[in-house]
Design goal:
Elements: E1 15-16, E2 23-24, E3 35-36, E4 39-40
Antiparallel strand pairs: 1-2, 3-4
Amino acid sequence: MRRAYNSVLRLPQLSVCPQCAAPYVPHRVCPACGFYRGRQVISVTAGA
C-alpha cells in the first residue's frame, strides 16, 4: 500500500512551441525563443 500512489505520478506534459517548434511546458514562456501566446515576453540570447 505504501507504493500504490507511485503509479499516479507522471511527468509533466509537453507542448510544441508554434514559433520555434521546441518542446515546452504549457502555460509557460518557451525557454528556447522567449515567446508566450504569440508575443515575445523575454529576450533569449544564444548561450555561450
